[in-house]
Amino acid sequence: MKPMEERHLAVLRKHMVEMIEILADLASEDIGKAALDERVMAVMHEVPRHLFVPDQVAPYAYQDMPLPIGFDKTISQPFMVALMTDLLAPQPHDAVLEIGTGFGYQTAILAELARQVWSVEIIEEFASGAVALLEALGYANVGIRVGDGSRGWPEHAPFDKIMVTVAAERTPQALLEQLKPGGRMVLPVGAEEAQVLTVIDKDATGKLAERKLIPVRFSPLETV
User: Which of 6, 13, 35, 86 has the least CB density, counted as fewest CB within 10 Å?
Assistant: First the structure.
């Protein structure tokens, strides 16, 4: 069978986005809306997910499922990527911190929507692969470093938005401190069998408000 061309991949991305729309509607009571932000959906339609996974699983890139990327890690299912991005609501003027770069798919989604993305990845092979790929795709508003994500990236703090794509039993204090007043964080929180997708808002006075949405299953946050 000959390799798929971009026109084939575009059709598959369109079908992926249609599935995300269906899942958002089905989950509307839990997430508080029947449709995700149009800006987010447009970006999901454009970013080539198949480039951010190993070659052996690339044929499945546009199915709504997590895929293995090595080191017992996965790339999140497209619906979860879209939902977390929608909940974070990155704006064109925002500086965003991402914890858990992987190969950079979520990073690319955020970079399309925000002014600047700073991303921390604990696995060096992932970080170097993401840097090379994102540079090749022309993303000039992304910075990536290898490190302990629970410590954030204090040199670039405070952040308008923070997204965490790995699960901690409790929200790391350093991330709460690096979130700007008026900012928002989206992350899975809880023990392995009891993770919940959580939105944390910090008001202008620094007071935190937490909203728990749906059960999820993410790789655990690794610290050093």
Answer: 6
